[in-house]
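Entry type: protein chain
Record version: 2
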Amino acid sequence: MSYPFPPALRLLRWTVHGTFAALLAVALIGLLRHGHGPLAAAGVPLGMLYAAGIVIEGRLPRFGGRAHLLLGRIWLVAITLGWAGLALTAPQYVWLAFPLFFAYLHLLPPPVALPGVAVLTAAAIAATGWHTGGLTGAQVVGPVVGAVVATLMGLVYKALHAESEQRRRLIDDLVRTRDRLVEAEREGARLAERERLAREIHDTLAQGMSSIILLLRAARGDLVRDPELAGARIDEAGRAAQDNLEEARNFVRALAPPALQHSSLTAALRRISDAAVAGTGTEVRFEVSGTPLPLPADYDQVLLRVAQGALGNVSRHAAARHAAVTLTYLDDTVVLDVVDDGRGFAPGRPAHPREDDTGRGTGFGLRAMRDRVTTLGGALTVESVPGEGTAIVAALPLPAGGAS
């Protein structure tokens, strides 16, 4: 049923079976009309044997290829012997050789089938001559033409079957390849989503938790010296926790960052510039250069996340006294600079460029920032010298038309 040409193959097969049944019926009716009932009855077992062959052919999946072929060849020998016996008793059975040609071509290899067809043709001619007492040209040409036609049709059947089988295997290969591609795409999408979530968590929740820890540590140190300042830091830590909670909810709802939901990019950058280094002793200055333009939402999100990541590095690693965040609008580019005068690091080192207060660095932040920027066709530049501070520059080409 999976062959590309199953209707044609089935039609040809049942045409052969129908031809045998029709020729057998004609022979039996002719014998009965001439009063040869016993000879007609002798043809019934041959028809039953032929029908048994059709049943065996239909059981191919159950018996298997080799067993089916063996049973088919045993059936062919039996049907040939039965035909030969009937053809010698009555000329009406001689023409049953025609559908047997197809059985020979189907069940035997060509080097055996073609001589078998020739022998069967000669036997049909000889049987005709036996009954008539001589041969005419028509009696010879008829079986020969039938054998030639059957041979050609059998070869066509084999060619169709081979081509359909080849196409079936090709279709199976294509289906398997498609399944593998679908699985690869699914795995790629899963890894990409994992990478995206890792960047989001690093730039939002992780940075927020770090700020909360720093604020609470600073508040604990101020509890005795300046309780009012300690309370202010605790309140700021609470607001940072609330923002982190909103970020976590947005991961589920796939919404924009809460910092951008009710404010512009510049206002959001100004707010996180103050919050990211709260309690660290680092002074942050935020500036806007050029004429602000409304940007696509993904631009706003990338610039905000880069600023969060860079300022998170400043608060945890740099031990800087001053930092500056500058958002610059050029004719065809928007640029975000985050500069500090802290301890710096060696950008060429492959991993752990900085260490936090626990002595562990992940090295993930810069890679996450670079991935975000390159996704929009931009570039991230990191310049740093140990002991002389760090500058991180993210440049994004403005989309066609500039404004969103």
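Comment: The first strand starts at residue 283 and ends at 289.
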